[in-house]
Amino acid sequence: MPEITRRRALTAAAALAATASAASLVAPGASAADHQHGAPASFDEVYKGRRIQGRPSSMGGHHHEHGGGYSVFVDGVELHVMRNADGSWISVVSHYDPVPTPRAAARAAVDELQGAPLLPFPAN
């Protein structure tokens, strides 16, 4: 059995460190890419007395482009949502509070509205 030298030990340690670094850099990107392409599930529920709905939609019009083909409604009024690069979601009502799903964005909007009606977002 060959004797382990300092050079071999350092080479092996460097190779292990490089492999571990490469794996940690690749794994988050791969999971984020997978998450971005997966469509969120549809939902239809009453949350704090308000009906919230979400479903995949066609890509027609500017107000759907940022939502990645997903529409969210609060009491029948469309809530403008946008998917961030990291897979989180924001809405026009809670723009600075990213959440993991469109359902969570609808719930956050209801919380923020505190009973006030959601007004339609003007499309350009």
UniProtKB/TrEMBL annotation:
One of the protein's GO biological processes: melanin biosynthetic process
Region of interest called Disordered, as start-end residue ranges on this chain: 29-67
Swiss-Prot/TrEMBL keywords: Copper, Signal
InterPro entries for the chain: GriE/MELC1_sf, MelC1, TAT_signal
Record-level Gene Ontology MF annotations: copper ion binding
Residues in the signal sequence: 1-32
Family membership: Belongs to the melC1 family.
Protein's name in the database: Tyrosinase
